[in-house]
Amino acid sequence: MNAPVDGVLVVDKPSGPTSHDVVSVARRALGTPKVGHTGTLDPLATGVLPLVVGRATRLARYMTGDVKVYEARVTFGRATDTYDAMGASTLDTGRHPAPEALAAALVPFSGPQRQTPPAYSAKKIGGEAAYKLARRDAAVVPAAVTVVVHALDLVAYEAGVATFTLRVSSGFYVRSLAHDLGVALGTGAHLSALRRTQAGAFTLAAALSWEGLVGGGPPARAAVLPIDGLLPSLPAVVLSPEQAARARHGQCVQALLPPYAGALPVRLVDEHGRLIGLAEPGPAPGAAALLSSLQPVVILG
Questions:
Q1: Under a CB-based contact definition with an 8 Å cutoff, are residues 170 and 64 in contact?
Q2: Which of 6, 12, 42, 270 is catalytic?
Q3: Is residue 263 over pLDDT 70?
Q4: Which pLDDT score, from 0 to 100, does residue 270 have?
Q5: Higher-confidence residue: 122 or 157?
Q6: Which helix (H) or strand (E) holds 102?
Q7: Is 42 known to be catalytic?
Q8: What is the rounded CA–CA span in Å between residue 119 and residue 135?
Q9: Hey, which residues does 114 pair with through a beta bridge?
Q10: Of 53, 55, 64, 57, nearest to 30 (Cα)?
Q11: What share of the chain is helix, strand, coil (3-state, %, to 5)?
């Protein structure tokens, strides 16, 4: 029997399979049902798809907000109902914007902004996924959400096809960017290719190929990143053996926070660097400014 495996398996997803398909293959490859993802990639998209495995599934909700980095290709002259190349045409002008017009149109799409997700998306409307409503020809207008474009660079533009690199917040839809650019320029546009090169701390350098995942067995298990190294962006608090014992039973512990901790959850680690879980800090009345009462919210054991 295989020993339990815990951590994150980064998969280089190919175009075609859904994120759920990748999870199903990973469950077979790793010999465990405890596999989930921290945010989907569209079937068209390729690249970094982090999967949480074993006890790491308890940390999934803390990993969904990570910044993402993409390489995207947008084709002008045709818009589709799904905002990508897999959809049916809704506008076919055959026109391409001039390079200077494209450069000017990009300016408003940098920084914080409100973005409307595609109708064909997993966003919930009245408790049901928008894409399910859209497939029934229901009128679908997902609510706009606040997103941040940290960087948007035009890498190449030729024959009506633009290549971009983007660094964006969680919840950003590159498909919506493509569609909105087409609207702004009056030409119509859709996303014709998308590759995610980074999700939080996870990059393609650590990714297992699709062939490696399908092959399964020891190579797939060996590619799982250890659970103790997860969520490196969260401040760590090292607990004494006595504090660690209390935390493992879900009991509050008092400890000094790093000066940069703020109100973020913190990682609780033991003296050997093993991740115990996550805790939310609160004030310790009458104590020194950096002393906090830490309430465990996730215990890994």
A1: yes
A2: 42
A3: no
A4: 94
A5: 157
A6: helix 99-106
A7: yes
A8: 10
A9: 146
A10: 53
A11: 25, 35, 40
